[in-house]
Amino acid sequence: MKVIQLDPSLAYRPENENHQYRNYEDSPLVDRVKMTYTLMHTHQTVEFVKQKLSHWGSCMHRKMTVMEALSLLDDLVDESDPDVDFPNSFHAYQTAEGIRKMHPDKDWFQLVGLLHDLGKILALDNEPQWAVVGDTFPVGCKHQKSIVFSETTFKDNPDAHHPVYSTQYGMYEPNCGLENVLMSWGHDEYLYRVLKFNECSIPEEGLYMIRFHSFYPWHTGGDYQHLCNEKDRKMLPWVQEFNKFDLYTKTEELPDVENLRPYYQNLIDKYCPRIMSW
Ligand SMILES: [Fe+2]
Ligand SMILES: [Fe+2]
């Protein structure tokens, strides 16, 4: 049994832990996980991502508060996640509380922990899970080996046979910066767009963590350096710092949400408008 990617946050894993995270080989949930990635890697193309961006990027679909969005995640179990099999709303509080313990002075970072997966509400609006959850990767250029399951899952993706999109740089200039790269469509980019659209005042590092937290081939695999610029290199340690809480606070011990809610409502009020457009 092995974990596919070498993960710098392994150093932060709780000791005597008998659970192995991000196990894509023989986790009890592996069949479900692999099916989600096969569909994702077959259908996420440049064309598909552009369509989704124009559909969801307008943020004209719902109006609701952050807490209302969070409660929608009570109905969502992430089918790409080999680690947990409980609703995503608990994961939001677990991540935020992990950050609060280690970074009591950074309330915006704690809020990022709470919010980071809210984009998964897409799955409740009839988007298939392969267009919502899971690791992200750049479209419009060669699919790299650092993408989980990539050896077998891209063969039916039309972009993998495209004369430009199948090349190392594809449609991009060298070191163009990740902000200028089209990522596979999912909850990271959607929530980033929602927070920008609603003019939330979360610092840039926080928005960046949200936008790229699922880009494992980069922040954990060390890949795609040829597309990165100075800003990406500066932001990488923040994304990695976030990642260790996203991953290693996942336990079956569920947080007391009722007790925690007032604290986080204060943070939401500080950084976000009350009613947001989604
Ligand atoms: Fe996520
Ligand atoms: Fe997460």
From TrEMBL:
Pathway where this protein functions: Polyol metabolism; myo-inositol degradation into D-glucuronate; D-glucuronate from myo-inositol: step 1/1
InterPro entries given in the database record: Inositol_oxygenase (IPR007828)
Protein location: Cytoplasm
The protein's required cofactors: Fe cation
A family per Pfam: MIOX
Top-level taxon of origin: Eukaryota
GO cellular component entries: cytoplasm
Entry binding sites for Fe cation: 91, 116-117, 187, 213, 246
Reactions accelerated catalytically: myo-inositol + O2 = D-glucuronate + H2O + H(+)
Matches recorded under SUPFAM superfamilies: HD-domain/PDEase-like
Binding of substrate, residues: 22, 78-80, 120, 134-135, 213-214
Protein keywords: Cytoplasm, Iron, Metal-binding, Oxidoreductase
GO annotation terms (biological process): inositol catabolic process
Claim: Metal-binding is one of the keywords in the record: yes
Chief location category: cytoplasm
The enzyme's E.C. designation: 1.13.99.1
Cofactor binding, per record: Binds 2 iron ions per subunit.
Molecular function GO terms recorded: inositol oxygenase activity; iron ion binding
UniProt similarity note: Belongs to the myo-inositol oxygenase family.
Name of the protein described by the UniProt record: Inositol oxygenase
Originating organism: Pelobates cultripes
Source organism phylogeny: Eukaryota, Metazoa, Chordata, Craniata, Vertebrata
